[in-house]
Amino acid sequence: MLWSNLPVSSSTPEIHVSTRASATVSDPALSVEGVHKRLGDTRAVDGVDLDVRRGEVVGLLGPNGAGKTTLLHLCAGLLAPDRGSIVVAGQRDPQRPRSRALLGFAPQATALYDELSVEENLSFFGRLHGLAGARLEVAVEEGLATSRLESRRCARVGTLSGGMRRRLHVATACVHAPSLLLLDEPTVGVDPDSRSHILSVIERLRGRGVAVVYASHHLDEIARLSDRVVFLAQGRVQREEEGKTSAELEHALSLLPRGHA
Amino acid sequence: MRTILLLAEKDLRLLVRDRGALFWACIFPLIFATLFGAIFPHETRERRIVVSVVDQARDAASAKVVAGLAGQGLTVDAAPSPEEGSLRVRRGDAAALLVVPAAFAAGAPLSLGVDPTKGAEAAWIEGALARGLSPGCSVAVQRAPIADVVAPRTGFELAFPAAVLWGLIGCAGAFAAATVAERRSGTHLRLRSAPIHPLTVLFGKLVACWVACTVDATILLVLARVAFGVRVERFLGLPVAIVCCAACFAGITVLLGSIGRSEQAVGGASWATLLLLAMVGGAMVPLSVMPGWMRAASLASPVRWGIAVLEGVTFRGLSVRELAPACAVLVGFGLVSILCGAALARRESV
């Protein structure tokens, strides 16, 4: 990972954030306009508009089936919208490799290779995003520090605990220093210590100007992390809130309509 | 290309560290070859007698001869030319070659070329020719052995080509299973969200599977030669045969990896398809004991062509030129599979 001033390791060398992005600083990190997506008979995403600024953490809240994961998949370029546009840091069409280079994505499942070691996983995802040589070495070292797995660098991922795997999962998603980080329930099934660590990593990323879209059912996490909370239900943005406590978020969530559109 | 190699390297590491996959790719084929090689003496292989017939006369008299052969329980395999018929005998597809000359009705003798290792079948065919014609009507038959026919010396020479195919099936199954695991674990989503072309993931799998199949087949054939005394008559043709077989099964893996959207669909379809191909292609039951319709169906299985190519370079001693059609079929299977797999993979991101 190339954010050298993250306070996770004091021994990592100073290097610069990736400059591959061709966007200007004034561009939003993510701009979603009028996006629609049908999955079978269901309108999974139904006319969503969303802008995320650099250094902003946007929490996605909503009941199951609200369209959070589908929206993240659309932003990650895994699905093509039926209508509307998605722009990632000035790059239109997130399905194009140039757009994908600017984003990091951590899906709901812990997406790691169990038979590879911790270091090999970090190295693989770094190389997949074009890192090589000294930059790759630095990124892997920082990934190890970020996930607090320096002492387990040669351990196979299949032998790690759930919390360790989750930390590594997040570290591999940002090993290439993306401008936009999409996290789909990154703290599911982890112990409080690992959870707190993952949240602190996200806060540090925000400090470096990374935009984060964070889907979760943990209201306290959303309240702690998010600059803005977007409530999704039936594939639509129902409301947006800023600076709310978890109790206020819970109340707002209870008012949302249920079921599919 | 660098990304394809990166993905292939990752897949090969995963394969090497998966003991179950290694068992199916390397150990099971050895067990198969050892058991079946020891059980089947080669004399029991050809139970049906196939006669390759070249009818140059194409008249009523020649038709009567051909019908007489079929009426005696022999399987008649029409060949377009004496050269092609001779090749079929040398490949072991037929026990003898019967040429009905253009002047047969005017008294020219039939020409019967026989596999010298199959004297009993030759005698049976001569008898059938005599019995199949009208009582009192006799024809002259010139019998001569076909040169360069090589029979398997041991059951291992028959068993190892099939065993290598089982190894390739094991590799293909392992890579299809790896595709399933990637879908289940979510790493497939991570690969698809990476800044690479969607087909790169597929081609990474293709390269990895091709390398694994090539190494697997090479190891098995070296073991066959060193430990079991299997002859390799065509050292030049051997790498060609291995590369073509590996290309075919690597292509099939790409198709299997793209065939369904769920792990259940991919896993089930993979093993069902591979076992069906093995069964029809002669890797479970030798083609020679199969009924006629199943022998015809075996043409649609790459396993059949793979066995033919590997038998050709080992004990049959066929040249690269003679193997070229079967090699082309294998590569064709691979290419068609890749194209279909790529088309299915493109559909996934819609």
Q: How would you describe what is shown here?
A:
The complex is a heterodimer of chains A (261) and B (350). In chain A, 31% of the residues lie in helices and 23% in strands. Chain A has eight helices and ten strands. Chain A has helices spanning 68-75, 97-100, 118-128, 133-146, 162-173, 192-207, 219-225, 246-254, and strands at residues 30-39, 42-52, 57-61, 83-88, 91-92, 103-106, 180-184, 211-215, 228-233, 236-241. The mean pLDDT of chain B is 82. The interface between A and B is medium-sized, with 34 and 23 residues.
Decide which structural class fits the backbone of chain A.
Answer: alpha/beta
* Cα gyration radius of chain A (Å): 18 Å
Unreliable stretches covering 5 or more consecutive residues of chain B? none
CATH superfamily of chain A: P-loop containing nucleotide triphosphate hydrolases
User: What is the CATH domain class of chain A?
Assistant: Alpha Beta
- C-alpha Rg of chain B (nearest Å): 23 Å
Task: Give the oligomeric state of the chains in this entry, treating copies of one chain as homo and distinct chains as hetero.
Answer: heterodimer
Number of self-contained structural domains of chain A: 1
Query: Could you say how many structural domains of chain B there are in total?
Result: 2
Q: Order of strands across the biggest sheet of chain A?
A: 6-7-8-3-9-10
Strand count of chain B = 5
Broad shape of chain A = globular
Largest sheet descriptor of chain B:
5 strands, mixed
DSSP summary: helix tally of chain A: 8
Please describe the structure with a list of short key phrases separated by commas or semicolons.
heterodimer; A: 261 residues; alpha/beta; Rossmann fold; six-stranded mixed β-sheet; four-stranded antiparallel β-sheet; 23% strand; disordered N terminus; B: 350 residues; abc type-2 transporter like fold; 2 domains; five-stranded mixed β-sheet; 13 helices; 5 strands; 65% helix; elongated
